[in-house]
Amino acid sequence: MGASKTDLYPKDITELAEIAKILAHPARISILNYISQQKACICNDIAEEIGLAQPTISQHLKVINDAGLLDGTYKGKSVCYCLNPEKMNWFKKTLTEFLEATTQTCC
C-alpha cells in the first residue's frame, strides 16, 4: 500500500499545516480568542459570546481539541476549556521559524 501524502513530510511540517488549517476558519479564531481571554470556560459560555449554536461550537471545539490546542477539565457533565500553552507556544515558535526562513532574500 502506498504512503499517504502526509507521510511524505516531517511531523513538524504536517502539524504546522494542520494547525494552520484549523486557524483558517474565522469561528475557530474567535473561539480561541475568547478562550484566551478567560481562565476557563464551557461550551455554552463560548456559544453565547460567539453567537453560534452550541452544537456548532462543540464541533469546532472538537477539531481544535483534536489538534492539541486545548486543555480541558470536567466539571460535572461539562468540559471547562482553556488553551494548551505548550502547544500554542510550539505553534508560535514553529510558524515564526518558518516565516523567517521563507522571507530571507535569495541569491
Number of helical segments with 4 or more residues: 5
What is the CATH superfamily label? Winged helix-like DNA-binding domain superfamily/Winged helix DNA-binding domain
CATH topology name: Arc Repressor Mutant, subunit A
Shape: elongated
Q: Which structural class fits the helix and strand makeup?
A: mainly alpha
CA-to-CA gap between the ends? 41 Å
Instruction: Give average pLDDT, whole number.
Output: 89
CATH architecture: Orthogonal Bundle
DSSP summary, beta strand count: 2
Spell out the helices and strands N to C. HHHHEEH
The neighbouring-strand order within the major sheet is 1-2
Q: Quaternary state, please?
A: single chain
- Largest β-sheet summary: 2 strands, antiparallel
Extract low-pLDDT stretches: none
The radius of gyration is: 16 Å
Q: How many distinct folded domains?
A: 1
Please outline what is shown here:
This protein has five helices and two strands; from the N terminus they run ααααββα. With 107 residues, the protein is mainly α.
List keywords for this structure.
single chain; 107 residues; mainly alpha; Arc Repressor Mutant, subunit A; two-stranded antiparallel ribbon; 11% strand
Polypeptide structure, described:
The chain is mainly alpha-helical and 107 residues long. The protein is built from five helices and two strands; from the N terminus they run H-H-H-H-E-E-H. A two-stranded antiparallel ribbon has the order 1-2. A hairpin with a 2-residue loop joins strand 1 and strand 2.
